[in-house]
Amino acid sequence: MTIRESAEMYLETILILSKKGDVRSIDIAKEMNFSRPSVSVTVHNLEKENYIRISEGGLITLEEKGKEIAERIYERHLALTEIFELIGVPKDIAEQDACKIEHVISPETFECIKKACESMKK
Q1: How far is CA 116 from CA 68, 83, 86, in A?
Q2: Which of 38, 118, 86, 97 minimizes the C-alpha distance to 7?
Q3: 34-68, pLDDT tens digit by residue?
Q4: Dihedral of CA 92/94/96/98: which sign?
Q5: Alpha helices per DSSP H over 1-122
Q6: Residues pairing with 53 in the sheet
């Protein structure tokens, strides 16, 4: 399954926001610091591709394939941030770097990083 980095960022944002409550386009725009019109276009494209569902009332929920991608990216984000912090990177920089790397890292490398992170915590 191939999906662009920007779409992954939207799906991850929807996942994070959904943990706090209902998600609407305006919430995504505020969280990502994007304009409402650009968010609206992307959200409707994600709906067309069946990554998300938009209710009559404008509530946005992840469809199964969108949720799988969002959870994979978010897991990478959390693990990469954690390992960067474990090796001494300041939290804000660790977050920024993890956000960049989470989209391009191979599954094999990520699995090795997860294992290394677990052994570092012991």
Answers
A1: 24, 8, 11
A2: 38
A3: 999 999 999 999 999 999 999 999 999 999 999 99
A4: negative
A5: 5-18, 25-32, 36-48, 64-86, 91-101, 107-121
A6: 61
